[in-house]
Amino acid sequence: MNFQLDKGNCIDVLRTMNDNSVDAIVTDPPYGLKFLGIKWDYDVPSTELWAECLRVLKPGGHLLAFAGTRTQHRMAVRIEDAGFEIRDMIAW
Q1: How many other C-beta atoms are found inside a 10 Å radius of the C-beta of residue 75?
Q2: Beta bridge mates, 65
């Protein structure tokens, strides 16, 4: 099995990747809860980031993105606005 681990800011690393080069994306991004006032958790990831994810995914590839219960709707809208089709959502 081959894999590659890239270190860096997510959007910057995604921009260096080829179109249609990733089989699946599984991510636990910031939930946008403003936890402890930390800047990176001020908001859910932008539509721009999700558009980059879609660009690098192979046709038929899937995105699994975790979200907080209070902000999952914001995350889903941005993912959908980037061009993804929302098929299933799991809450617990």
Answers
A1: 22
A2: 27
Predicted confidence at residue 92, as pLDDT, reads 63
50-91 confidence digits (pLDDT tens): 999 999 999 999 999 999 999 999 999 999 999 999 988 887
- The HSE-up count of residue 50 (CA atoms within 13 Å, CB side) is 23
**DSSP string of the chain?**
-------S-HHHHHHTSPTT-EEEEEE----S--GGG-GGGSSPPPHHHHHHHHHHEEEEEEEEE---TTTHHHHHHHHHHTTPPP------
